[in-house]
Design brief:
Helix content: 40-55%
Order of helices and strands: HEHEHEHEHEEHHHEHHE
Shape: globular
CATH architecture: Alpha-Beta Barrel
Largest sheet: 6 strands, parallel
Bound molecules: zinc ion
Distance between the termini: 19 Å
Number of domains: 1
Number of helices: 10
Structural class: alpha/beta
CATH topology: TIM Barrel
Number of strands: 8
Radius of gyration: 17 Å
């Protein structure tokens, strides 16, 4: 995406997918089909994913040909449970291993489980990360580059009731649908983003989409948000500091 396109897009769509599960390959295929950019945050030795289910280095390289690869620590440890220096080591080791695999600089990062402190933000900056994503949801703002918020998680959070009610403009039946179905919630947020301008950021996990049999919901959302004139489709690394409103 060129600098000019970036500046003139009032509405930006970005997506990001965490963890480095082998199903990321299927997810990448779907993004390709709909022309949606995405960043895959990979922890190469993620202890929460069985070794046979992790994306192989060859799989990571294949994704890297079409998508941005971002850091997600080496083993997906919860950063606040570590000393600051051990946390920085985890972040750096993951970055270096991915850079060795894909052969280019890895400049975006995602805090595992969205858990971080100001020390981790400072570490991310110091080691050359220029974007870092959180798991804050329900935002259309560009946000601070090292604490990027998101809009919708491809997962039905049962705590989204008040947000659903607000988006449904207080119509209870519409709100109930948004509350129960994250794909409906995503469509509503996207339409609001078209109206008001901003960054629509969809994120999730391929393994979670599989576990909840949500591939059709994901495809429905991608179809709805794809190919819109005037909309910028960007990787996380290309997100603007601030989108023109
Ligand atoms: Zn993760």
């Amino acid at each position: 995406m060129t600098e000019g396109t970036r500046v003139h897009s009032r509405v930006v769509v970005t997506t990001s997918w965490d963890d480095g599960h082998r199903l990321d390959d299927r997810l990448g295929g779907l993004l390709d089909r709909y022309g949606i950019a995405g960043t895959f945050y990979i922890a190469p030795h993620n202890v929460e994913i069985a070794a046979r289910d992790r994306l192989s280095p060859a799989g990571v390289r294949e994704l890297a040909e079409r998508f941005e690869i971002g850091g997600h620590t080496l083993t997906h440890r919860r950063l606040p449970m570590l000393t600051d220096s051990a946390a920085a080591d985890e972040m750096r080791a993951g970055k270096e291993e991915l850079e060795g695999t894909v052969g280019t600089a890895v400049t975006s990062f995602c805090y595992p489980r969205g858990e971080y402190t100001s020390a981790h933000v400072a570490s991310a900056r110091a080691m050359g990360f220029r974007r870092a994503r959180t798991v804050r949801r329900n935002s259309l703002a560009a946000g601070p580059p090292l604490e990027l918020p998101t809009t919708v998680h491809a997962y039905a959070h049962r705590v989204d009731g008040p947000v659903a009610l607000r988006l449904a403009r207080l119509r209870p039946w519409t709100a109930a649908g948004l509350y129960l179905r994250w794909d409906d919630l995503a469509l509503r947020w996207f339409d609001l983003c078209l109206e008001r301008g901003g960054v629509f950021h969809l994120w999730g996990h391929s393994w979670e989409v599989e576990a909840h049999r949500d591939w059709h919901r994901l495809e429905r959302v991608l179809a709805h948000i794809s190919g819109r004139p005037g909309v910028g489709y960007l990787s996380n690394r290309d997100l603007p500091g601030q989108v023109r409103r």
